[in-house]
Specification:
Layout: H1 3-10, E1 18-23, E2 29-35, H2 38-45, H3 53-61, E3 64-69, H4 73-87, E4 103-106, E5 114-117, E6 126-128, H5 134-147, H6 159-165, H7 171-174, H8 188-202, H9 207-222, H10 226-241, E7 255-264, E8 267-276, E9 279-289, H11 296-310, E10 318-320, E11 334-335, H12 340-360, H13 364-368, H14 372-384, E12 392-401, E13 404-414, E14 417-418, E15 424-427, H15 436-454, E16 461-465, H16 468-480, E17 488-491, E18 498-500, H17 514-542, H18 555-565, H19 568-573, H20 576-583, H21 585-596
Parallel strand pairs: 7-10, 10-11, 12-16, 16-17
Antiparallel strand pairs: 1-2, 1-3, 4-5, 4-6, 7-8, 8-9, 12-13, 13-14, 13-15, 17-18
Helix pairs in contact: 5-10, 9-10, 15-16, 20-21
Length: 600
């Protein structure tokens, strides 16, 4: 898929967090990626210049793009992890090992331990996470252990074992980090109060804890204990950003299929999500065009059957936002959840269905020009009466100092934005004195002669800084190259009027016109770029020392003299003995001779 193919698709990609998937013509999954903004991230792959050969090769193979919308960047990260581990896409280089994001677990034991794990098991323990930020997880773990003295040892603390083993309190008990249930100093009921409080905190009920921490911060500030207050403030910030539950990964769901229906008049979309071991493994949108008025329950039943037949899939449990009129599967539980993780999953599925339906309902012309840059270029095309959308525009400006050191700048805008890698500078060779017309003709000739010889694409519009004279010179150059058909405009500085070839009357656009603003931006950018280069040339020429004019004094001796005396003036005012000490008697004699002859 090239940039043109992507531009036709771009309107359908939302600017929300999510996961995108690239497929080739054989429906092989090439790449899975996450994004905070799906449209911006995907568009980067189809930019005119891509950094690596690997990405360029992959982009050429892309035939189809799929995406799944999620609620947050955190969820996108987790879903990306799941899909890469399942499908092992060819162009993914991360997350292919057996590791996954960590969880916190309260073990199913008489005196529960709170630990970090990467493996979720159906052993009755309570799991929390996964955590995409280890810093947040370990800060939370450390905070819980400070608030609630939970044991960290791996001893078997069954009632019989405690009675027989005769454990003695360890160092953790002496430090106040554990109440020593191993030695019978704490009952199961008393210990469970700590684990229940930790459970509520890990579930996300942070209100009371945050209130208490903020109170401690104020007390520390009142006592001028600012370091302690800062440490508490860091914990508050991390807890406020902490998410204990994820929509796309949940430890409470073993295997589940979610269906959500979004409908408007005769168009409908049903989104299907398949969850296995708590993670979303597949997301698919089924588009439906209704010939007759159908009840939503009937639509849902047909969609369920079609999707499961397409994937040859037999659901174990179904949740949905609309109950089907008759379930197409025998003895499979199906319900509309009201809360909890299953409700969150249905809401996420419905969100994806609505995004797809929204694009189906757009008018064709709205689809074609859905992005902001396309709307701008459409307006430029209309105002300037161009034959095609001006996705590639080039602008030229000349700079000189009283006819000397004439330079020209060419700036390139693609899709309404500067493409700075394509900017070019020209030191004009055939122009003598002040002749802006000849300068414009030379630079236009050199620029497009080069593009033609190298086979590059030509711009959709050329803009020159100047009035009818510069415009006529540029047109003459294009005609000589056989490019007289290329759209060409001139912009006059005084009235900001636009001139077209063959039209004696200037085009006066409204000062607030986006077309005029774009052309002004290009003209100003070309002027800035050319002026910067012109100043550099003048500065370099002005820095040539008077010593360079002395025959026999080369660059190396000039460097020695300037290093020793600091300037050409001081060199010419130095005594002969001082000069001999730096460059020797022969070179010193040349400098003295130049000075006596009036050259200094």
């Amino acid at each position: 898929m090239d940039i043109t193919g992507f531009k036709a698709l771009e309107y359908s990609i939302p600017e929300t967090p999510g996961v995108y998937r690239y497929y080739d013509r054989n429906e092989h999954l090439l790449y899975v990626g996450k994004a905070k903004n799906l449209r911006k991230r995907v568009s980067q792959y189809f930019a005119n210049r891509v950094d690596t050969h690997r990405i360029r090769l992959m982009v050429r193979l892309i035939e189809r793009i799929e995406f799944t919308v999620v609620d947050s960047e955190h969820d996108a990260l987790l879903l990306e992890n799941v899909l890469i581990k399942k499908h092992q896409p060819r162009y993914n280089i991360r997350l292919k090992d057996d590791k996954t994001y960590p969880f916190l677990v309260l073990r199913n034991e008489p005196f529960s331990r709170l630990e970090v794990t990467r493996k979720v098991q159906r052993d009755g323990s309570r799991y929390y996470g996964p955590y995409s930020s280890p810093t947040t997880m370990y800060t939370l773990l450390d905070l819980i252990r400070k608030l609630y003295p939970l044991r960290t040892c791996a001893l078997n603390l069954s009632e019989n074992r405690i009675a027989k083993a005769g454990y003695r309190p360890c160092l953790e008990h002496q430090l106040g980090n554990c109440m020593a249930p191993c030695a019978g100093l704490q009952s199961v009921m008393e210990y469970s109060r700590y684990t229940d409080a930790a459970h509520l905190l890990l579930k996300g009920n942070l209100g009371g804890l945050l209130l208490n921490l903020r109170k401690q911060i104020k007390e520390c500030v009142a006592r001028l204990e600012f370091e302690e207050a800062h440490a508490l403030k860091v914990k508050v910030d991390l807890l406020e950003r902490y998410q204990a539950r994820s929509t796309v990964v949940s430890t409470t769901i073993k295997e589940l299929d979610s269906f959500a229906l979004a409908q408007h008049q005769d168009r409908a979309v049903v989104n299907h999500m398949h969850v296995r071991n708590g993670a979303v493994m597949r997301s698919f949108n089924l588009e439906i065009h209704l010939g007759l008025e159908e009840d939503q329950s009937s639509i849902m039943a047909h969609a369920m059957l079609e999707i499961c037949n397409r994937y040859e899939h037999q659901p174990m449990e179904i949740v949905c936002n609309v109950m089907p009129e008759s379930l197409p599967f025998v003895r499979i539980p199906c319900r509309v959840p009201s809360d909890g993780d299953k409700r969150k999953l249905v809401d996420l599925s419905l969100k994806n269905a609505f995004f797809c339906l929204q694009e189906l309902l757009r008018k064709p012309e709205e689809r074609q020009f859905a992005s902001r840059s396309d709307r701008l270029l459409q307006q430029v095309q209309k105002d300037l009466q161009l034959p095609q959308l001006p996705q590639h525009i080039e602008c030229f400006d000349n700079s000189h100092t009283q006819g000397s050191q004439t330079v020209s700048a060419c700036v390139v805008f693609r899709n309404g934005r500067p493409a700075k890698r394509d900017y070019r500078l020209f030191n004009l060779r055939d122009v003598e004195g002040i002749d802006d017309f000849a300068g414009m003709e030379e630079v236009i000739t050199r620029r497009y002669q080069r593009l033609l010889s190298e086979g590059h694409t030509l711009p959709d519009l050329v803009v020159v800084d100047g009035g009818k004279g510069q415009l006529s010179s540029a047109h003459s150059a294009l005609v000589a190259l056989g490019l007289g058909h290329m759209p060409l405009m001139g912009i006059a500085k005084r009235l900001e009027a636009l001139f077209k070839v063959g039209d004696p009357h200037p085009l006066m656009l409204d000062k607030k016109s986006p077309t005029l603003r774009l052309i002004q931006q290009m003209r100003d950018e070309a002027h800035r770029f050319g002026l910067q280069h012109h100043r550099n040339r003048r500065q370099k020429a002005g820095m040539q020392s008077a010593l360079d004019k002395i025959k026999g004094i080369g660059p190396e001796n000039t460097r020695k003299l300037l290093s020793a005396f600091g300037s050409a003036e001081r060199v010419f005012s130095a005594s002969e003995d001082q000069l001999i000490a730096v460059v020797g008697s022969a070179k010193a004699a040349l400098i003295v001779k130049q000075r006596l002859g009036g050259g200094g």
